[in-house]
Amino acid sequence: MTEPNDLDTTPLAGESLADEPIPDARQAGTEGAANARAREWLTQLEAMIQDIATQAAPVARQVGAKAAELAAVAAVKAGPIAQKAAEVTTDYGQRFAERAQSVAAELRGEHGNGTAPEAAQTAAEDVAEAADTAADEATSA
User: Fold this and answer.
1) How large is the angle between the packed helices 28-109 and 116-140, nearest 10 degrees?
2) Could you tell me the CA-to-CA distances from 59 to 43, 46, 67, 95 in Å, in that order?
3) pLDDT, tens only, 72-129
4) Which of 21, 39, 83, 104 lies 20 to 30 A from 67 at CA?
5) Is 92 within 8 Å of 134 (Cβ atoms)?
6) Which helix (H) or strand (E) holds 137?
7) pTM confidence score
8) Is the pLDDT of residue 137 over 70?
C-alpha cells in the first residue's frame, strides 16, 4: 500500500537538514549549489506531500461518508423533536396572545386610577412564566 520514496538525497534518521550551514550570498559558486539543493529539497517535500495525500484520500472519504451517515441519523431523530417544539410554541403563543390582549384591555380600562404599573408587572410575570414552561416542555420532548 505504501511505497518508499526512492530519492537518494533523503536524510537518514538522526540527520538534520537544519544543521547545514547557509551559504554566503557573496560566493557565486556556492549560491548556485545552494539554489540547486533548495530545489531538490522542495522536490522531495512535494513528493512526500503527494504520497501522503494519495494515502490519506481513501481515509478522508470514509470519514466524510461516516459524517454524512451521522448527520442523516441526527436529522431523522430531530424531526419529531422539532415538530413537538413547534406544537408547544404554537400553544404557548396562543396563550400569550390571549393574556396580552386581556392585559392591554385592563391597562386601557384602568389608565386613570394608577394601577397600570401593577398590571404591567403582572403581565411581565405571566410572560416569564409562560416562557419558562414552554422551554421546559420543549426540552423534555
Assistant:
1) 130
2) 25, 20, 12, 53
3) 999 999 988 888 888 888 888 888 888 888 888 887 876 555 555 666 677 777 777 7
4) 83
5) yes
6) helix 116-140
7) 0.36
8) no
